[in-house]
Every structure is written in C-alpha cells, then in structure tokens.
Amino acid sequence: MERILILAVVFGAVIFLIRHVGRVFKGDNPCSGCGKSCSTREELK
Amino acid sequence: MKRLTDIKTKSILTILSIEGGAGAKKRLAEMGLFSGEKISLLNNPGQGPVKVSVKGTKLALGQGLARKILVKEGFMIKNEKNITVAFAGNPNSGKSTIFNNLTGSRQNVGNYPGVTVEKKEGVVSYKGYSLNLVDLPGTYSLSAHSEDELVARDFIVNDKPDVVVHIVDASNLERNLYLYTQLSELNVPLVLAMNMSDEVEAKGQSIDYEELSKLLGKPIVPTVGNKNKGLDELMSTIIKLYEGQLKTEVVKIDYGQEINEQIEPLKEMLSKDEGLLDILPSQWLAVKLLENDSLTSALIEKSPMGSKILAQVKKGQAHLKKHFSEDPEILIADRRYGFISGACTQAMRFSVEERHDFSDKIDMVVLNKMFGLPIFAAVMFVIFKFTFTFSQPVAKLFEVIFEWLGGVVSSLIPQGLIQSFVVDGIIGGVGGVLGFFPLVLFMFFAIAFFEDSGYMARAAFVMDKLMSKFGLHGKSFLPMMISTNGCAVPGIMATRILDNKKDRLITMMVTPFMVCGAKLPIFALFIGAFFPADQGANIMFLMYVLSIIIALVSAWILKRFVFKGETTHFVMELPPYRIPPINGLLLKMWERGWLYVRKAGTIILLISIVVWAGFTFPEATIEKGSNKEVVASMQMEQSFAGRLGKVMEPAVKPLGMDWRGAVALLSGVAAKEVVVSTLGTIYSLGDVDVQETDSLKEALQKDPTMNPLKAMAFLIFCLIYLPCVATMAVFYQESRSSKWTGLLILWTTVMAWGASFIVYQAGMLLGWGIS
Q1: pTM score, whole prediction
Q2: Chain B contact for A1, CB < 8 A?
Q3: Nearest CA to B133 among B299, B212, B17?
Q4: Dihedral through CA B605, CA B607, CA B610, CA B614, nearest 10?
Q5: What is the ipTM score, two decimals?
Q6: Which one, A38, B247, B440, B614, has least CB within 10 Å?
Q7: Got the DSSP string for B189-204?
C-alpha cells in the first residue's frame, strides 16, 4: 500500500514536470523564479 | 502665403498647408483639398460660402473651413517641390530668429520664453524647393501643458510636417534635448539645429557633433541664428532628409526594466488597433499613456480596445507607483534625462566650466577613467560582503530548524519508505534549498539598493570601455546585470534593448554565465562547507569576477569567429541619483525572494521527489548482515539514478567529481537550485543515523572524498555549464533559432568542462588536492 501511494505521487510529479517543460518551451510562463511575476511574463509574450 | 478667405478675386491657387485638427483636415482631404493641390477660386463674397473648383468639381466651403486653407497665388514652379518644415524647440532657443532670417519676416523676437505663442508661417525658395516654414510656439515637451504648447504639439502630431527642425539651445544642451527624446519616439523626420553654438565655446565647452549625431540617430547642424551662421547648411540638410539622402534611425530610449515591462503589454494591445498606429507609433502612445497624458488617453478612449488599454495603463501606473513610490510621469522624465545625460557625457567636453549638479559631482568620481572600474568592483564586493555577513545568523537559524524538523519527523514516522520519502526526499531536498532563503533575500536587497539608486546604470557606462575591447558594449552589460540580480530569463529578454542582431545574439550567449539567484545556493553551500567563514564574500566575489571574465572571453571568441561585424553606436542612460525608498526596496526584495520560495515549493519539490525515487528504486539486492552504511551506499549505486551517474562518471572524473556530482549536475539542468536539493537527498539517504541528522553543509564537510579543490572545480562547472530549461526555452524563443540554441548548449558545456578541468588538474599538480 505504502509503495503504491508513493509511486502514485512520483508518477504525478513526473507528469507535472513533463507538462511544465512543455509549457516552458511553448513560451507559456517560461520563468519559474526569475524575480518577476509570471503575469508580467505572460503579458510580455 | 495667404488664407483662402483673404483672396477675393477669381484666381488659380496652390494649397500650401491646411490648419486645424485631424478632423478638419480629413474632411478637406476627402474633398480633394490637400497641400500641393491646385484649386481655382470661383467666388468669395467675403461672407457666406467660398466657391472653389478642385479636380473639375465645384465645392462650396464655409468661411471657417476656408480660413484654415493657406494658399499661394498661381502655380508652383513645375520642378519646385513643396516641403512643410516645422521649427520646434524650447522657448527662447532662437527659433524665431532663425525663422526670420530665413523668411525675411519680422516676427517679434525676445530673449525670454513665450515670445511665439501661436504658429507663424513663411515660404522660402531654396535650390528649386519651396519650403513652407512653420515657426511653432516653444515647448519643453510634447505633453502639452498650456495652450501655446498645445499648438506646437498638435501641428507636429496631427499635421505631420515633412521635416521637423528641432532648434536646440546648444549652450543648455541637457535641458533642451528633453524634447528630442519625445520627437524621436514620434518617429518624425528630424534635424537638430544646434543653435547658439558660439556660446558653447564661450562657456569653455565643446560638443562632438558627429558623435552626438551618431548617438541620437539624427543629422545635426551647428547654427548661430543671430549671425546667420549654419543656416545654409540647415536648409541643405532639410532637403537631403526630405529626399531620403540622409540615414537616420529611431534611437530606443531604455526606460529600465520595470517601466519597459509596463510599456510592452501596452504596445501589444495598441498594435491590435491598426487605425491608431496609422496615426502614431505604439511606443510613443504607450509611454504617453503611462505618463498620464490626457490628450492621448482621450484618443485611446475612442478605440474599440480603449477600455482594455486604459485598464492596463492604470494597472501599469499602479505597479510603478508601488515599486518606486513615485508618479510614472516623474519616473519616465527621470529616464529620459538619464538618456540625455548619457549622450551628453559621451559627446561633450568640459574645459573650464565646473559641472555643478549633484549627480554630475558623483559621476565625476564614479565614471572617472581611472577609478570607475575599481569603484564598480568595490560596489560588487560590498554587495557580497553585506550578503554573507548579515545573512549568516539567520541562515544558521534556518539550518538548525531544518535539522530539527528532520529529527522530529524521523521520530514520528516509523522507519520505512514513507519516512525516507519525507525526510530524505522532501526535507533533505527542499530544505537544502530553503535553507539559503535568507542569503537570497539579503543579496536581492543589496542589489536592489544599488539598482534603484541609479548606480547600476553607471556600471554599464564604466564597463563600456572594457567590454568594447571584447566586441561588446556597455549596453550589453545591463542584461548581464539583470541576470545577476535574479535570473537569466529576464536577462535574455532584456537584450531587446540592443538594436543590432549580432550584438544581441552575443549578449544572449554570454548572459547565462552570470551568477543568477539560482546559482547562489550552490555557491553558498560549497563556500560555507569548504572555505573559512570570513572568506565567503571573497570567494563569492571571485566567482562573480570569473563569470564576467568568462563572458568577455566568450564574447571575444564569438565576435571574432561567429558573429563578425561592427558594434553599433548607442547611448547609455544615466538617471539622476536618488536615495531608494525603503518600501520599494523591501517590495523588490520580497517579490524576488517570494518567487524563490514558490519555486522551492513547486518545481524543486517535484524534482526532489523524482530524484528521491530515482535513488530509491529499484531496491538493491544486498547481502544479509551488511552494515547500514554499506546498505545505503549499495542502494544508491544500484538505483536508476545511481546507474545513470555511473554511466556519466568517466566524463566528470577528470574534474574531480564522482557519480553523485554527475547526477546533481544533470538534475540542475531543470533548475540550478536542484543541484543543492539533489545533493541534499543523496547525503540524507546516505545518512544512516536518523536521529542525528546533519545539515547538508556538515554532511559535505564529513565526506572524506571531498576537499576544497574539488569544491572549487565543481563550483566553476556550475557557474558555466548549460543553463536551466527555462533559460534555454527563452533563448530559443528570442533567437528563433535551434542552431543558436544548440550552439549555446554546446558552448556552455565545453567551456564549463574545460575551465573545471584546468582548475582541478592544475590544483592537483600544485598539490592542492590532497585532503
């Protein structure tokens, strides 16, 4: 049970990260911690 | 030249110009009445409609409308081209004197502002051209504040003269060029007449007009209006400009990152209304809107996008006000004067006259050829010293908190996968990164102070000479500074301030080398673990200097072999110095710091989970009876991540790293802070005593395979090696080239490996690597 729970969390994290990288390369919210608000970046785009 | 209503007899006339607003002009143009058109006056009774014939069609014009039409009797000479020239400039800059000397008219002239309160017109024939000269009332800017200024602005903005001559009082250059900054953005064909140029010399100054012309992107003619000097050359220049024989450019005024970030979305929205952009350039409109210009706001209200644009303007103004505790119009004026100040510093020479302005006095020292660079180095050192000294006690507290948290959670959750997941994966990974939060905050505060005080703009100026030797110029240094102040992503975006594509690509290639906020925890961790506490700021400063050296060497190589070409002329803005408001500094520090925390709580947390899983699965087959340390070590080595690290190990071994370093570096491509979180997870997993958890710094210190030389080689690799995914993505978006993005990846990797190899191997040869 413990193992299934953890694997589900890990799987979710992997999916999220893959989607995040996809978004970054599409230019959608490329910045995650640059010191500027993400809304600004979206407006710039 | 007469008004149409002044002519009472039947005659053939040529329209010279039409007065009035855009509405009246449009109405007349629709009827075929515009400058240069031939018309026949059929009947003008003095009262009631004026009858004219244009292109064979008879029209009746009201007296009011007919009064706006300025005409010349008879035909134009067949080959005589009609050029409308507007004379604009500050009050008392000598416009009317030049106008009178050229047209032979007798306008009232005086040595005080406001002599010309309405526009005057006169015609002069010159080398086969008929120049319709319009002397406008003096204006300090195009934000019309008074009726006479409004007349000038209306004529330039709405009537669109063929050429605008900006008459500048050269003896008071900085004040007078303020109008230039707005005329330039308006993208009108512009000539600058440097009037009273004789007084410049009398004041012990000299102006390099050629240099100034290059910096401002417009032709410049020195004149002395009251002595008729330079007027012939001025007329020739007007004609050459009209005929397109002179090269001009629209010089971009850099309003600074914060203001530019408010201008860009406005430009984007304005560009959707093509009707608006037919009248005025988007940059001019966006800046005027942020400046709270009522006439521009009224114009925008009529646009279908009006309400959205004005809402965005309010949002942008509020953002700027919050950041700088200052009205946007003041900020924009500050930046314009910064631009002018930069141009004047580059083009003016002072021999006897003392510069007396407060900012000038400071600049005499900080921009000094001898002391400029050492002062800049000292400023950067102060930033690092401040950061390391003052953040230390708070950072220690954070370290203790995370150690305590790890111990508590270990005692609460029974030993097993979930305990390892929380303690090694989450606390070990994210905690490692969050532990450096105070350091990041202090660093952002110190940089924000120098940024908002106006010094950082000077840094670019100081660096210009050094950078030009490497094929870059000072302006390229600003994106590099932005990268140091936070992240390479906005740094790469800021390269938009560079007009030349090659300069821009080189700057984009070298910007990721800078010490960004994400690299900071890596440096702080290794410096704290392997170097004496009082040397922290020194090593950090060394890293910073190294990053600039690497960037300069890279730029030189790229300029010489890849992006060959001339470096363009530009103006570096020198905004006036000011004491930054404390709330603005704290806000900036918090905004940047908060994103660091948010990143740690999202992306870094998720990557830490994946990295932990990579080291935990598959479970290794270990002989029974092995001690705990062997079990932990075998597990990591046989895991997915461990096997990947082992594959990479031969590549990093000459750099003094093992498979753990390789995995940390690989994971750092996702985000540089992940190097720390991955090491946190690795050392936490290797820590077998769950009750006595070490901080990552302590764990590194206890690692017998590590030493200061290896730490230094690792840091140098981290400083240079390929940028994070977000930076690569923005590089690709900005360069729109997979070829250059590929070059960036290859270049940074090769440079990092080479530099790290040299440091490690040289250190070994010198016997520094013996731990």
Answers
A1: 0.65
A2: no
A3: B17
A4: -120
A5: 0.80
A6: B247
A7: -EEEEEETHHHHHHTT
